[in-house]
Amino acid sequence: MTAGAEYLINRGGVWQYRRRVPADLVDLDPRCEIRLTTKKRDLASAAVVAAKINTDLEAYWLGLSAGQPAAKAKGAERFERAVKLARTFGVSYRSADDLARGDLDALVQRLELLEEKQVVVSPVAASAVLGGVQKPSIMITQLFASYEEHVRDRMRGKSEDQVRKWRNPRLRACNNLVDVIGDKPLAAITREDALDFRAWWRDRVLDEDMDPGSANKNLGQLGAMVRELSEAWRLGIDNPFAGLRLAGERHNPRTPYPADFVRSEILPGTRLMGLNAEARAIVQIVAATGIRPSEVAALTRSRIVLDASIPHLQIRPESRQLKTRNADRDMPLVGIALEVMREHRSGFPRYRDTPDSFSATANKAMGEAGLRPTPAHTVYSLRHTFKDRLIALEAPPRVQDALMDHAVGEIEYGAGPSLEQRATWLSRVWV
């Protein structure tokens, strides 16, 4: 069950969220009991709604208990708290001006709600229900920090390296925009500003032979940050960066190795002796199983299961996020992969938190050893060769998806191929 579901009560076939205000907070929140309908008749859907209500309510109570009610918070934090608190009263946050321009009955209902909940004298509650908190104003130089705070839940489970890769390009996008149009409030960014920014990028693409993809990433990241904060803070900003992609973006698909080359030159490991033992082993595992290099590098002792009837690796989101929801899987160990993992039962601590370091080290050493026929051939190319082998063997699509951790291309029924079935197909790949 989702947290919050324990406060659900069924009334007339509809689930309601009911929770008493904690005894140590009754002086700060005099409502005594919170009662909100989830508007859901099935328990699973109601539990999702209850989780959201519960999260917002506990965040509000935490602020009260810490002596930092919404009235004392700053800018965006104060506004977001007001939005959350309004939801705990069963209404959406609307500004005072919006309420004044709207239906008088709606305003009266909100006043009656405050009286019913016995919080008329609470300035915090009144500000939330009657729209008394000013919408935040934010400068471009503050955009990324505000956005990062707003989406901090998405950082959960990311490794330090993954957070760095997420942060840096978005921060660069904001800095680039300031360089072009100067610092100004978010709501003051015009379509002309966005067009100037695209023109600046177009000049760089032409003058410096840059990939238009870099420009498009900047435009997309800025648009996403503006759009999400505008929605969260009810700013009503139209995304000025929408539809401004540059044409000609380069798509460089990975170049797979020939299967015979992998079988004879890479899997045995004899031509990888220029690499340290951990890097050499990771290359062999990637080639033998098609697992992503970063997933191999992140393996811990507890996820290397060698004493089972079918030895296997458990790919799990430990101290880092996996690339996709399908990436959480078990990969059988057969042949060379099993031999290598028996020599590395504790995993690869040298590269566990620095997969980029592994890739740089491996690609350089493989190039020096003549194991990169072209610059397009990299360690990651081995994963594509593995996919080619599955296709050549005419492995069923569900087996290919399970081994490659790709999304199933149809409605997914059942648990998918068993570990034994995966091992059977895996044993045929490099025969």
Task: Determine the fraction of residues in helical runs and give it as a percent range.
Answer: 40-55%
Any low-confidence stretches, pLDDT <50, length ≥5?
69-73
Number of helical stretches of at least 4 residues = 17
- Do you know the CATH topology of the largest domain? hpI Integrase, Chain A
* First-to-last CA distance: 46 Å
Note the topology:
Layout: E1 8-11, E2 14-20, E3 33-40, H1 43-65, H2 75-88, H3 96-101, H4 104-116, H5 123-129, H6 140-150, H7 160-181, H8 191-208, H9 212-232, H10 259-266, H11 277-289, H12 293-297, E4 304-305, E5 312-315, E6 329-332, H13 335-342, H14 355-368, H15 381-392, H16 397-404, H17 419-429
Give a summary of the structure in a few sentences.
The chain is mainly alpha-helical and 431 residues long.
Describe the structure.
The protein has helices at 43-65, 75-88, 96-101, 104-116, 123-129, 140-150, 160-181, 191-208, 212-232, 259-266, 277-289, 293-297, 335-342, 355-368, 381-392, 397-404, 419-429; strands at 8-11, 14-20, 33-40, 304-305, 312-315, 329-332. It has three domains: 5-129, no CATH class; 145-232; 259-429, hpI Integrase, Chain A (Orthogonal Bundle), CATH 1.10.443. Helix 11 packs parallel to helix 15. The model is unreliable at 69-73 (pLDDT under 50). With 431 residues, the chain is mostly helical. A hairpin with a 2-residue loop joins strand 1 (8-11) and strand 2. The protein contains 17 helices and six strands. The radius of gyration is 28 Å and the shape is globular.
Summarize this structure as a short list of keywords or feature phrases.
431 residues; mainly alpha; hpI Integrase, Chain A; three-stranded antiparallel β-sheet; 17 helices; 50% helix
